[in-house]
Amino acid sequence: MKDLKLPFLTADQPLEEGFRVLIGHDVSAVVVKDADDFRVLHLDDLRNARYKGARLLRDVTSYAPVLFPNPAPAAAPENVLNESGYRYILERLTADTAMLYSPLDMHTYTLSPPAIVRCTYSTVHYYPPHMRKPGQTTCSFDGTPLV
After folding, report:
1. Cβ distance 5 to 99 under 8 Å?
2. What are φ and ψ of residue 82, in 5° steps?
3. Do residue 66 and residue 104 come from a single domain?
């Protein structure tokens, strides 16, 4: 069981803003609100959406839905999640931060901060998802510096 603090964005923001926030906050996922739905978008979700030509965060089609009970349930969060089938429940929301709860360590483990670096070559790509050796400072594809 773990509480998660993730950056919060809206669905009308550019996809590239999602990447900037991931890297700037050193996390591997963001929470996005689209109408009345809340979604956890993981780094791989953003990367796949970019590959498919998505421009906005609302265009990302793969995500983990977030339960947003309104009003807040009287039962414990883990009981609510177990009955609902969701992996995450939204506990608190500010202008730029979402607090989520997940009863399973595996769900929270997948959101732990990766070591995200960007290749400086003209065709931008990131590590991860590309494999990077410990201490690697140059791109394995084209030899340019990683930042």
Report:
1. yes
2. -60, -35
3. yes
